[in-house]
Structures
1.
Amino acid sequence: MRAMVEAFPSLLSLTKPDPSIMTMASQAFSSGLHGICIAGMGGSAIAGQMAKALLAQKAQVPLITWRDYELPRCVTKDWAVICVSYSGNTEETLSAFETAKKVGSALFIVTTGGAILEQSKDLPVALLPKGIQPRAALPVIFSLALPIVEALIGIDSTDFSKLSVVLEGLVKRWGNEIMSPRNLAERISSLVPLFIGSGHMVPVSYRAKCQINENAKTVAFSAELPEANHNEVEASHTYKEYGIVPIFLRSTHESKKMSARFEATDAVYRQSDCAPVHVRLSGLSELEETLAIAHYLDMLSVDAADIREVDSVRVDKIAELKRRLAEGF
Ligand code: F6R
């Protein structure tokens, strides 16, 4: 897992969608789409959540994500649906795929193979490289899914080769501008992290929670601002008792109102003898920040796994659940 996470920057420029897929996405945009839905689960869902957080405000039509069976009724033949499943065998994603086929939406598939590929003859498929854990494939899934979404909303494609170089360079700032992932992992090793983000950092905080769960095999939580100011904050006097450490994922693009919220939340938490950790990298675009902080926290999860002496690759319980469900209970 460490090698896969270290490869995060280079995985961003490993592949790109076939020009024929981009043409189909541009044609779908020109035909006047009514909405775009990105369906997928777990490690295959996060790229869509990031794309939505970064692009929803630029899209002239609803851009939604779906992590469930079937699809919401509003998704019709005038929508585009992107189904992402690393294995191609995830039952919720297959259900969304079948629903999209039934209603006649413009379908795009991102996968390595499996049942979804078998059922995708004549459909645009962006093929992922095999042999990576789905969650570690985030950069490559993102580099295929984001350009499709960009074309579907009629904006220019991101230059992933450039992005990959930027991300590579940012690793040097770990341990200087921000604490190294290893130091942070040591500092929180006996604590439960509560990642808190706002705006485009919301999926990054959820990703960090999931990476701690799956890689370090331990409990973690995520929340978002401003919403957490209306509920979560009332529990903060118990954080010390339960060993919870809030980790604020800050953005240099935060509005003044949002910065004030982070600082006020920090002050309220400190009253309960709980000092949040602030994670922030300066001088980056929203897209760079999203990926750079996700990469940093992916590394934190691998360091946490090492400290806990657990196998960061195996996901036996996820596999058992899938097996039990396939066998009928
Ligand atoms: C495993 C992982 C899981 C899977 C999820 C969906 O590394 O992160 O969350 O991503 O079970 O499976 P796929 O990605 O094959 O559709």
2.
Amino acid sequence: MQGKRIVLGIGGGIAAYKTPSLVRQLVAAGMDVIPVLTESAHHFVTATVLTTLSGNRVRADLWDLDAENSMGHIELARWADTLLIAPATANLLARLAHGQSDDLLTTLYLATTAPTIVAPAMNVEMWNHTATKRNIGALKTDGVHVIGPEHGEQACGEIGLGRMLEPEDIVSQLLATTGPISASMEGIRVLVTAGPTRESIDPVRYITNASSGKQGYAIAEAARDAGAVVRLVSGPVALPSPRGVQQIPVTTAAEMKAAVLDLAGDIDIMFGVAAVADYRPIRSEPHKIKKTQQNGPSISMDLVENDDILASVAALPDPPYLVGFAAETQNPIKNAVHKRERKCLDAIVVNDVSDRSIGFDSDENEVTLLHADGETTFDRSTKAQIANKLVSAISALYAKKRT
Ligand code: PMT
């Protein structure tokens, strides 16, 4: 994670007293930290301490002309690789959720395309209040990562959920969320396909599969965090759009193929994570198919094969580095080796989806990466962690192929 640039937003809660320790630990992990205080944060921690520990001038005021002249707030928003807000008080969360920009920190939140992580801290009743829950829900929908709070004794003497995570836990969650920076993809153009496709039977029915898009979205985010310019061609999923990633929504396999081929000449690495329907109904009925006596107790449908998207890209004159995925329920490695050869892929990532706790729609995965020089298994962990490891491994394989 060396060299990662963190804007650390500090809200006005008692937990702000832990931020000098947080700054020390972020700096010790190799990060460049610029602290940004809200007006009320000054009551709990001093700018002098934070400047000394971070080695950077603390920012606090949107109207500080000296600071604005050295690095304006829009420049600061662009400088950040990650916006980390700790502690995030109930008031600060409400302002963020409503898109207010009435001070430097909330303005930075709106102006940055970097991933945002918030570590809430407040009294247990405030955390449990419907308004706070609503604000947290809205922030999550907007793509903000919420870490904590934890259960324990609070400054007010009450016991319950609301304590900010300890600095060491914030640092490790930050590393898990944003990934190791050593996987540099600086300036590399990456295309990710994710989610399922839907093949229409009639206006109200379709053929699809159980892909949630989680693994593909995590890969798009990991590549973005490693410095890549990322495009995400996504089937219909219920996930927030990753910040700083160009998203192209599609529905059918044919639309996904068209969107991919439109971009393929302009990319360096493609991850085909989408679970594309292999077949579609030969025709989509213009009106809802009725249940009639005439049809009898069973009906049948003719299906036609969809074009293979990865194979179409592999057939281009100068194809990108191609990474396919294989969801298998039997002989996963053997089938994936065959699939890699058949589709002319540089590498393939194998999921054994016979285990329902990994693969489709789960929060965790366990995969094996197969390529020309061998194979590596990434043990069970979150899809974000798997994505970081895959991005690391693929950036090394891509660099090797180029030289
Ligand atoms: O989305 P999640 O819920 O997080 O689940 C993740 C996942 C299980 C969907 C993902 O990790 C995964 O394994 N994706 C590939 C699933 C799949 O459909 O595999 P496949 O064996 O059918 O296809 C092999 C490869 O060919 C895939 O890269 C696929 O994108 C590609 N393909 C398939 C059909 C087609 N017409 N064109 C293609 O390019």
3.
Amino acid sequence: MVLNSPRGTADIFGNDIEYRDHVTDSARDLFEIFNYNEIITPAFEHTEVFSRSIGTETDIVSREMYTFKDKKGRSLTLRPEGTAAVVRAVIENKMYTAGATLKLFYIGNMFRYERPQKGRMREFWQLGIEAFGPDNALLDAEVIWMLNLLFKKLGFKKLVLLVNSLGCHKCRKDFLAEFGKYLEPLADSLCGDCRNRAEKNPMRIFDCKKEGCKEVLAGSPKIISFLCGQCSDHFNKVLGYLEKLGINYKKDESLVRGFDYYTRTIFEIVSGDIKSAQNALGGGGRYDKLVKQFGGLDIPAVGFAVGIDRTMMLMGQLGIKPRKKVKKTKIYLICMEEKHQDYCLEVLKYFREKNLICDINFTGRNLKSEIKQAGKKEYDFAVIIGEEEAKARMVTIKDMGAFEQQSAGWDGEKDKILKIIGAGDNE
Ligand code: HAM
């Protein structure tokens, strides 16, 4: 029986690792510049962590979560996103100091039971940040700035940054009153799910992908027209800072994002090069009430997450190459006979302690085959230990590029050996 990976999951290897490292290394460099520290949270949480924060009527909670009971009957869920888990961790570990700004970043796999297609997986990888602290529009701008800068550094050109504001609970109340009146005569044009949403959580109608519902929404009131003075002022400040930073953005009054926890600023970065619904590379927003809702202090927060798989996929499509890592010398140690393995182990240990990439043949093939193998696997040098070398405690070093071969004594000529293989490059 051939076993395949479950639908919507993927093995990542070979070239993809280079792309992935390029994305995550670039993000780590950026996070360091903006003074963020890493947090690693569990891959699963108590189900409530997500249902209480993301919202029971959202697509994610209502149909996309991998929820299961453990052996003691507790309901657990594989994380569908990082924000709620980070909020839980900040409160539980008392990480927040009053008056300070707590800046955290994470890189991890997320799980959503979605219909898999190109750029949409059931297990996918995100990198994200969450900043807890002041309710300052500059922090929103800084977070958007990072998101924008990350893609710029990765070499993307045709990206569009969409921004909107969902206001506070007061703005939402005013908007929902009007929105309800607007929807009443149009209820029959909504899909079954949205008729239900209209009763329970009308904001979520904006997440619906069905044409009929989109048509109904085209002429509906938009939340941006219902912002209170403070929220409107906050949003204008965010936009002002973005302009000062020279960041192009597009106001999108229909942007709501599929989570109930957002308040005020929300944003998304989409690619003009992907002509599909899966064109969002990252997104985020402010969630000023979530920490309190989780039983913590009244701490505002803002963050974003980026889809690593989708970013890699688009890099490939656009021909954006990952940065080449500084090449380290690679050595293939060829031990010709098992009886010389003790000596070979000594050599192997020395090379590895010198930070040289060194591997040994575990199977006994003839020298020709082993050398061929070294060439195939792109080793820079083959270090050969056969009968003669072992007897004289020597090594024979074959330069795989220059097709040259030299010998040196192991006990008295280490400097010569290191010089031949250019070991200084790996320090
Ligand atoms: P999100 O928009 O759901 O936000 O996810 C962020 C990014 O993850 C998306 O833009 C997309 O690139 C990627 N993504 C989402 N679902 C999938 C999938 N099924 N397959 C592949 N990639 C996917 C959040 O998760 C929020 N927690 C962001 C946030 C952080 N808000 C505040 N802080």
